[in-house]
Amino acid sequence: MSFLPTPPSAAWLHQDARSGFEVAYFAAFEGGWRAEGWTTAVEEGETWVVRYDIRLDAAWTTRRAEVWGRSVSGERSTVVEADGAGRWLVDGRAAPQLDGCFDVDLESSAMTNAFPVHRMALPVGARAEAPAAYVRAVGLGVERLEQSYERLANEDTRQRYDYAAPVFDFACHLVYDESGLVLDYPGIATRAH
Length: 193
Fold this sequence. Notes:
Layout: E1 9-14, E2 19-29, E3 32-43, E4 46-56, E5 62-71, E6 74-82, E7 88-90, E8 93-94, E9 103-106, H1 114-120, E10 127-129, E11 132-135, E12 142-145, E13 148-151, E14 159-165, E15 170-176, E16 182-185, E17 189-191
Parallel strand pairs: 9-11
Antiparallel strand pairs: 1-2, 1-17, 2-3, 3-4, 4-5, 5-6, 6-7, 7-8, 10-13, 11-12, 13-14, 14-15, 15-16, 16-17
Organism: Acrocarpospora pleiomorpha
Pfam family, one: Glycolipid_bind
Protein name: Glycolipid-binding domain-containing protein
């Protein structure tokens, strides 16, 4: 399975779980990829803004994520770094609870669900666990998120996956475009650009 190149930018309208908007920019960077973006939202009556700068290697494995956030409780920032072999640092300190993760997943972002899909390149019918270093939108706490993806048959140029995150009792059917970016994330976001 291969994807077309990512566009220079993409945007998502966040809805249902929160009201908001996300914009991301993509570029080749030091033999891999860089994704920069911003999300603004209102969720359960609370406003927040998150900015991110994520570096991926050529295989779409997360190597570094700098995340900045602002909510009524103040400003925060965190740096999450990975060695590419499943070991992580959070703000320079070892984070053994994240061992075995290869992706960063931002609670504030629909875009970060592109990382495991690119990295794993699952054939139709295959299912894989894809635990991630999960960065919360408010407070930027980092925790392990167990999740899985199962590749379904394509319909036209779109790719489809069954996604599950059991800790949230959440499962849905994700639809991706030909470049591997989410088009429809039920209950979370839809692609706006």
